[in-house]
Amino acid sequence: MPLSDAVQHALAVTKRGVDxxxxxxxxxxxxxxxxxxxxxxxxxxxxxxxxxxxxxxxxVVLNKMxxxxxLGHNVIFLIGDFTSMIGDPSGRNVTRPPLTREQIEExxxxxxxxxxxxxxxEKTEIRYNSxxxxxxxxxxxIQLSSKYTVARMMERDDFxxxxxxxxxxSVHEFLYPLMQGxxxxxxxxxLELGGTDQKFNLLVGRELQKxxxxxxxxxxxxxxxxxxxxxxxxxxxxxxxIAITEPANTMFAKIMSISDQMMWRYYELLSFCSLEQxxxxxxxxxxxxxxxxxxxxxxxxxxTRFHSKQAADDALSDFxxxxxxxxxxxxxxLSLSGAPLGIAQLxxxxxxxxxxxxxxxxxxxxxxxxxxxxxxxxHLQVQPGTIVVQVGKRKFAKVTLTA
Length: 403
Description:
The protein is of the alpha/beta class.
């Protein structure tokens, strides 16, 4: 059927920043039919509650869900409480340990509350895949497994690499893409979203829908956001992440720490600015404007989204103050005894360094200050009194040291 201007606009919104939209012509027809019938599409995103905190990398796909939600479609936020007990092997070269029911329930409690910082909570359908996976039972699981061959499963890149390398693959890992695919059958999904590492699993859902006599879902994959190191994908395990519940000042400072080149990637995947505005930013930077000014704009945009405009303004002031060597207003205060106390022990006990050896390295690198003065003597014995200790650019503590 022909595509109206509204449908073409919806398709353009859908495609912004995506890695792949499969199959685009099918999805365009789904949009056209939705417009003619007035029936919204059912759009699904599944997340396994493997950790209690969501980070900006997760919001890349959540932002896309919100855009589709704003176009009038029904979005389904699916918490994979059943599939978490299997463990998604996507992109891994070893079996991922499954979570216990208690861990899953604890993590799931905070998931949607955090996702609602991006999605319109009142218009979001929340589901748990244990609703239909638990009732399957052994008989249903065997019937489901019969619908997919080992050869098809071995087409998955990580399975192939592990098999060739002689790395063990447990049978239960084959169940993960099957169960994720079955979610699409249970929910009658029209479109499923995921990261690029989820493409195989999303395609399994499409094939299973065909086996169950349903219209096949389209799939949309979003790029994986690199973390603060600019190399690895954002991950809590790699400690290169920005949690969406972090304090405003911390979030702002972390965004400002990314490279000028990586800034454009963050604009592409995280910003709600128009493409025209981003193109303008690139133009003025190429003409000589300091990229720091443009980085401030996205840092404020993201902090405002997860906190408030006032928090973003305060975070900017705090960042400027710190960059000038100033001391932030909200530093931790604590009391320690044992003076005179070695500088390494003081830094460890004040939780400014994880160990005395790390503290020694920071002193050697010139990263430790007391009352604004750089400390170069790693054998310094700190005398009784109240001091402000700084490690690196962002760690401060006001320490009262007694004998």
